[in-house]
Structure formats: C-alpha cells, structure tokens
UniProtKB/TrEMBL annotation:
Keywords: Heme, Iron, Membrane, Metal-binding, Monooxygenase, Oxidoreductase, Signal, Transmembrane, Transmembrane helix. Its cofactor is heme. This is Cytochrome P450 716B1. GO terms for molecular function: heme binding; iron ion binding; oxidoreductase activity, acting on paired donors, with incorporation or reduction of molecular oxygen, reduced flavin or flavoprotein as one donor, and incorporation of one atom of oxygen. InterPro entries: Cyt_P450, Cyt_P450_CS, Cyt_P450_E_grp-I, Cyt_P450_sf. The lineage of its organism: Eukaryota, Viridiplantae, Streptophyta, Embryophyta, Tracheophyta. It is found in: Membrane. Belongs to the cytochrome P450 family. Heme binds at residue 420.
Length: 474
C-alpha cells in the first residue's frame, strides 16, 4: 500500500475530531485538566482555606492568560475573568449558557432554584421572588427587621465584655430570615432548622463523592431534613391562606398566593423549597459575613469609624427614644453603605460562580465545548488597578458616584439580568444592624492575628472575637 495512502487512513479519525463539516475547530483554552475527577479542586480548596485563592487564580492567569482550562469538582472547566468575562456570563441567555452549578451545590440546594433555571422558567421564578424582595415591599418590613436586631443585641451583646462576632451575626441573620421570609417563630423547630442548615452549607463546595462520614454526605442528609421541614411549613402556610391569612406576611405565603392564568399556583412546591433554600444560604452567609467584616474594619480604621458614627448619630438624634428606623432613615445612611460596598469590593463574600455551556461556544478565539463548566471569579475585577486605582487601599469614596464605575466590574451580587434579587434585602439587613451596634457599643479586636480564610465564605481568625463596651442601654 502506498505509504501516503496509509498515513491518510491513519490520520483520518484525528481529522474528523479536529473538524466539523470540513471546517477547522478553534482550539480549547490552554491549561491542564489535571488528575481525573479531582483535577485542581483540592488545590483551589486548599488555597481558599489559607486565604491565598486570589493569588492562586492570579498565578494561573499570569501563566495561561485570561482564559484557561482546568477541572473543578469533577467537571472540565474553563476559567475566565475580567469585565468582558463578567458581561459574557451575566448577559448570556439560556441558549448558550445554563445556570447549572457544581454537582455538590445542585444536589444540596436542588435543581429548581435560580442558580439552575434558565429562560422562561428563570424569568417566572425570579419575578415571583422579586414581588416580595423588591424595595417597595421590603420597606414595610424595616421595623420588623429592627425588632429582631434589637432583641438579638439585648440577648447576646448587652452586658457582655467579650463576644465572637461571626457566629453571632450568623445567628442574627438566620433569625431575620426565619421571621421575615418564613414566618417561623422562635422555638424548638427554629433551633432544629438552624442546626440542619449549618450542616447543609458545610459541604456545598466539596468534591461530590457521596460516601459515609464525608462532609458532602453529611450535607446531603441535612439538606433532606431541611426540605422535609420546608414541605411541612408550606403545608401550614397553604392552610393559613385558605383561612384568609394575608398573602404577603412572609415569602412562602407570598409565593403560594401568586397565581397563573389558570388560577393554579405559579411556582411549584419544589421551586418554592429550592429557592427558599437558596435565599437562606445567600441571605444568611452573605449578610453575616459583610456585617462581620464591617465590624472588623471599624475596629481597625478610626477615620472611617468616626465618619460612620457621625452619620448614624445624626439619625439617632433626630428620633424619639426607642423610635424604630424608617425607610427614609436608611436613605440617609449613604456613607455607611459606601463603606459596605467597599467592604464587598475588597472582601467579596462570594468568591466566584459557575455556568455550563449548552452548546459549543467560541470565546476570545477559543472553543469551549458543550457541557463544560465556566468558572468566573469576583475579585479578579474588584482588585484590577485599571478599574479601581490603588485597589488594595480601602476607600469608600470610590462609590460616591457608583454610576461612574464601569458596568460588570463590581459584581458582589452578580450583574445585569442575573443580579441577585436579594440585593435590597441584604442592604436593609446590613444598615439596620450597623445603626444600633455603632450607637450603643464600642469594641476592639481581641485577636492579634487579623487574617481570614475562605470556607468558602470569608471567615476571620477565631470568628472575630472583640472586647465590648456598652455606651448606653438598648
């Protein structure tokens, strides 16, 4: 046989792998998929827990450029970053990218939450959630949130010489969620709920190998218990609605009351459960971490402390004793919220996120095959000196004119049509909590080690213990 014919026959299968319909395919991004199943998962998780994840990702970007392939949590993955990457992720419709998360997140939170839905389903469920979480609705609950905050401070802060901030903030934000979103009163059921919830979130960023005694296995079991409790709660709320309960007394009741054209419930029971679990995770962890790191900042920066205190005391002095905050009061906390946004820029609670390609797509001249994950990282734009000059400097005045910040560069809550619907809820929680804290207490850090790790949220050393002095009774 002619040697050239033989080579042609041997190379023909490779040719078909590299072409489609006679056209050369773009090459996949540079990088390595690493060890099967594990890939770079352990390296990333190790970097997160030693607070070197940003450096780990930056070194990868320096080596391979703004797009590279890797393997995370059992899936081939393409890492992208930058303003254009953020825009691509947050504006792509369901025909190119699906909202699918890692197997561990999907198996724990469920496959009918906003992180998973695309197209019309995403729009339908998002609109339903927004009907309760939009500012026009939430402004009616400012007093209810403040009641939870004041009760928490009286129980856990007043009269104490030392407190550990992060676990207390997690307790507070969970109680606000239980009260406002579920209408679940204090007691044994709420206590069990928080115990299962804590177990559930521990394994969300883990390798999804369901074996006994693993973190992932414990999280799956806890997730099943949380879902069972939510189904029971939905049954109770549905019964209360039939007896004439107000349709907007909490989030679950609100979702149950929304009807479609056929007068059936617009949001299914699974969609209510999975999205309530998502909001639990987002509202509990994001807000508690943000408030904790603001408290940490105020202990370290006297100039910012004095500016925030001045703004909050002006609001307090304009009100009668024990008079509750109003929506208008929150609108006056402009500098305090700029401090919060700069905290979100420098220490974003959400490290990054995932999408999944629905089809082969081209990005920046490379092919990203169908079924691969796309991984984006928040801090890669937050700490970009071309976008935020002197990015390591803490400067709340960057947000004096938030409109001047280029779109898709500040993304702690996502962006575009994918921005978190709970953004305003997190803002209200934060401002309502900071007001009585700073007007009633002073504090200083107890721990000399002022570092933190990610697991996957930022966790200060020892949970941020502080020495506490009460200025006045609550």
């Amino acid at each position: 046989m002619n040697i050239f014919l033989l080579l042609s026959l041997l190379l023909l299968p490779i040719f078909f792998l590299l072409t489609r319909r006679g056209k050369p395919l773009k090459r996949v991004p540079p990088g390595s998929l690493g060890i099967p199943i594990l890939g770079q998962s352990l390296g990333l998780l190790r970097a997160m827990r030693t607070n070197t994840a940003e450096k780990w990702m930056a070194e990868r970007a320096k080596r391979y450029g703004p797009i590279s392939k890797m393997s995370l949590f059992g899936k081939p993955t393409v890492f992208i970053y930058g303003q254009a990457a953020n825009k691509f992720v947050f504006t792509s419709d369901g025909s190119k990218l699906s909202n699918q998360q890692t197997d561990s997140v999907r198996m724990i939170l469920g496959d009918r939450c906003l992180l998973e839905l695309s197209g019309e389903d995403h729009k339908r469920v998002r609109n339903a959630l927004s009907s309760f979480l939009k500012p026009d609705s939430l402004k009616n609950y400012v007093g209810k949130i403040e009641d939870e905050v004041m009760r928490h401070l009286e129980m856990h802060w007043q009269g104490k010489q030392k407190v550990t901030v992060l676990p207390l903030m997690k307790t507070l934000t969970f109680n606000i969620i239980c009260s406002l979103l579920f209408g679940l009163e204090r007691g044994a059921r709420r206590d069990a709920f928080v115990e299962y919830f804590q177990q559930m979130i521990e394994g969300m960023w883990s390798i999804p190998i369901n074996m006994p005694f693993t973190r992932f296995n414990r999280s799956l079991k806890a997730s099943a218990k949380v879902q069972k409790m939510l189904r029971d709660l939905i049954c109770e709320k549905r019964s209360e609605l039939e007896k004439g309960a107000p349709p907007h007394q909490d989030l679950i009741t609100c979702l149950l009351s929304i009807r479609g054209n056929d007068n059936n419930e617009l949001v299914s029971e699974d969609e209510i459960i999975h999205n309530v679990m998502l909001i639990m995770v987002a509202g509990h962890d994001t807000s508690s971490v943000l408030i904790t790191f603001i408290i940490r900042l105020l202990a370290n920066d006297k100039t910012i402390l004095e500016a925030v205190l001045k703004e909050q005391e002006e609001i307090r002095n304009s009100k009668l004793s024990r008079e509750l905050l109003t929506w208008e009061d929150l609108g006056k906390m402009k500098y305090t919220w700029r401090v919060a946004m700069e905290t979100l820029r420098t220490t974003p609670p959400i490290f990054g996120g995932f999408r999944k390609t629905v089809e082969d797509i081209e990005y920046e001249g490379y092919l990203i095959p169908k079924g691969w994950q796309i991984f984006w990282v928040t801090s890669m734009t937050h700490m970009d000196g071309d976008i935020f000059p002197e990015p390591s400097k803490f400067d709340p005045d960057r947000f004096g004119n938030a409109a001047a910040i280029p779109p898709y560069c500040f993304v702690p809550f996502g962006g575009g049509p994918r921005i978190c619907p709970g953004y305003e809820f997190a803002k209200i929680e934060t401002l309502v909590t900071i007001h009585p804290l700073i007007t009633h207490f002073t504090w200083k850090l107890c721990c000399k080690d002022d570092s933190f790790r990610r697991d996957p949220m930022p966790v200060p050393t020892q949970g941020l213990p502080v020495q506490l002095v009460s200025k006045k009774l609550l």
